[in-house]
Amino acid sequence: MKRTSTWASRLTALSTTAIALLLLQRLTHPLTSSSVVLVVAIAVAGIGAAVKMTLHNCFESHLMVSLVAGATLVGTLLSVTLGLPGAERADLGPVHGALIALPVVALGLQNADARLQRRLRGERSRRTYAS
């Protein structure tokens, strides 16, 4: 179901695009082959989710943004704390910091968008005394 586009949904699409671009930047560093496949899959899903969010702002786009943000957040936290399978623990650098912060921002913006959508829905269904 298509919903109206809000400032929060546009910023969510922007933050998801930033996540995807940072993940693609990670491909310049040596990764195991399984990590490369995961990073590419999440980056492509992130770009698709951002485009879908920009065009339709629907349930599916919110679901994809949540999955991309969650996978990025969990993967980055695992990479920084324990290390990914077949690789050593990574140092916490600016890119890792951004890959931790951006998913949290995207999820927060989705919450703000949901609140705005509920408010808009309530204003549209509110009746005046004369009608």
UniProtKB/TrEMBL annotation:
Keyword annotations: Membrane, Transmembrane, Transmembrane helix
Keyword Transmembrane part of the UniProt annotation: yes
Chain ranges passing through the membrane: 36-55, 67-87, 93-112
Name listed for the protein in its UniProt record: Uncharacterized protein
